[in-house]
Amino acid sequence: MSDENKHSLEPNNWVKEYSDYLYNYTITRIDNHEQAKDIVQETFFSALKAAKNYRGQASERTWLIAILKRKIIDHYRKINSRKGKAEIKVNFHEDGDKKGSWLEERVPQLWDNEAEKQIENTELKSVLDNCINNLPDKYRLVFNLKNVEHYETEEICNELDITASNLWVIIHRARHQLRKCMEDNWFAK
Amino acid sequence: MSKKIFISCDEATTICNKSQYKEASFLEIVKLKIHLFSCKICGAYSKQNATLTKVCSKHLHKTQGERKLCKEEKEALQKEVVKKINSNT
């Protein structure tokens, strides 16, 4: 590649040129404004530090996005280790003869026969939003990528650096909690 | 996923959740069906889970359009970046 074709970095223009793009990319993955904003800032800071290693082969934007993706994985790892299993209730016996069968207090209750007819209800939407917001961060994040953004399993695994079986355990637990929450706040009444 | 044909409720509901996204394998579905044949609790779960999927697809939608930082936030960000640039040189 000749020197003229190489890309160069203009850090003074980064905020003007890329902050919206990076922020939008982040907010769809981390649904928290303050955290997303911080991650964009950290991305610029890390980029400044790494600027001397920039070879000019990728465009400025592509290079920044690569750094941002790393930041998102780091963020995910942080919430993953900080808030582990304890936050989500266990639904099944974890050992002994009954290993893998339902804990009595977590058995699904009978739902209102009309449950199916209430799907259109707009109040139901706010109950659903609340229940999703009550999920621990890492569960909410994965659940939203799957159900709101409709990402492929493989894509989510790559972006968050987790395995497919990790992902299904997370979805499994998130949906259990969500079902219970919807039951308590809507369907069982 | 275990090789055995009879699975626990924990495994059955995992498959049930996977199948909500049409990502359970044929063998997994067979195992789930066999389990549901003899387990009423998971039967109820499975039915409710399908309702939950309908509720989600009805009410959860992508936010339309690009979300942006406001002018003040960008100015503050610009200040921070410039500060960093100057401290590095």
Automatic annotation (TrEMBL), chain A:
Against CDD domains, the record matches this protein to: Sigma70_r4 (cd06171)
Q: Does the keyword DNA-binding apply?
A: yes
Extract the Pfam families matched here. Sigma70_r2, Sigma70_r4_2
| Domain RNA polymerase sigma-70 region as annotated: residue spans | 15-78
Q: Which GO terms describe its molecular function?
A: DNA binding; sigma factor activity
Which residues does the UniProt record annotate as the domain RNA polymerase sigma factor 70 region 4 type?
Answer: 128-177
Keywords (A to Z) from UniProt = DNA-binding, Sigma factor, Transcription, Transcription regulation
Which InterPro entries does this entry report, sorted A to Z? RNA_pol_sigma-70-like (IPR039425), RNA_pol_sigma-70_dom (IPR014284), RNA_pol_sigma70_r2 (IPR007627), RNA_pol_sigma70_r4_t2 (IPR013249), RNA_pol_sigma_r2 (IPR013325), RNA_pol_sigma_r3/r4-like (IPR013324), WH-like_DNA-bd_sf (IPR036388)
GO biological process assignments: DNA-templated transcription initiation
Entry superkingdom: Bacteria
The UniProt entry, under PANTHER family, shows:
RNA POLYMERASE ECF-TYPE SIGMA FACTO (PTHR43133), RNA POLYMERASE SIGMA FACTOR HI_1459-RELATED (PTHR43133:SF8)
Q: Which family is it part of? A: Belongs to the sigma-70 factor family. ECF subfamily.
Name of the molecule in the record: Sigma-70 family RNA polymerase sigma factor
Organism, as annotated: Aureibaculum algae
Task: Supply the source organism's classification.
Answer: Bacteria, Pseudomonadati, Bacteroidota, Flavobacteriia, Flavobacteriales
UniProtKB/TrEMBL annotation, chain B:
UniProt superkingdom: Bacteria
Protein's recorded name: Glycine dehydrogenase
Q: Which organism is it from?
A: Aureibaculum flavum
